[in-house]
């Protein structure tokens, strides 16, 4: 898979499951977050990251599907083979992997 195909795949897959992931976001906590409201806003490599106290993660306003692992680490649909200690670390790694690609909302498909 060339870089352009990989980016296109990541763009679609990352947000394709995001809306379904938001429905289960209640199982995620805001561990590792700071700020008065319990959430966190950050600019990382020119991208806007917002992590809510409820555990929802947004990159440039688009939802990033994140999952909490049994060991209380996190992973995202972008970096699902790697574990991160906090939601903000997970979001930063997703930004690194996306490079210049943007997240897009697409429909969720069940197999």
Give a concise summary:
The chain has helices at residues 3-16, 18-23, 87-98; strands spanning 40-44, 47-51, 57-59, 62-64, 66-68, 74-76.
Structure report:
- Helix content is 29%, strand content 20%.
- It has helices spanning 3-16, 18-23, 87-98; strands at residues 40-44, 47-51, 57-59, 62-64, 66-68, 74-76.
- A four-stranded antiparallel sheet has the order 1-2-3-4. The chain has a two-stranded antiparallel ribbon with strand order 5-6.
- The radius of gyration is 13 Å and the shape is globular.
- 23% of the residues are buried.
Mean pLDDT: 76
Q: Looking across the biggest beta sheet, what order are the strands in?
A: 1-2-3-4
- Helical stretch count? 3
Instruction: Give the helix/strand class.
Output: alpha+beta
Strand/helix succession: HHEEEEEEH
**Distance separating the two termini:** 22 Å
Number of strands: 6
Main sheet specs: 4 strands, antiparallel
Q: Percentage of helical residues?
A: 25-40%
Shape: globular
What percentage of amino acids are in beta strands? 15-25%
Supply Rg: 13 Å
Low-confidence stretches: 15-36
């Amino acid at each position: 898979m060339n870089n352009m195909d990989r980016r296109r795949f990541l763009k679609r897959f990352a947000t394709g499951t995001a809306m379904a992931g938001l429905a289960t976001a209640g199982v995620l906590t805001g561990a590792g977050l700071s700020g008065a409201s319990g959430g966190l806003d950050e600019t990382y490599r020119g991208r806007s990251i917002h992590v809510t106290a409820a555990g929802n993660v947004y990159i440039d306003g688009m939802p990033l599907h994140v999952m909490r692992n049994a060991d209380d680490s996190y992973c995202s649909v972008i970096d699902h083979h790697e574990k991160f200690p906090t939601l903000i670390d997970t979001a930063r790694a997703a930004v690194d992997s996306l490079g210049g690609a943007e997240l897009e909302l697409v429909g969720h498909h069940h197999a």
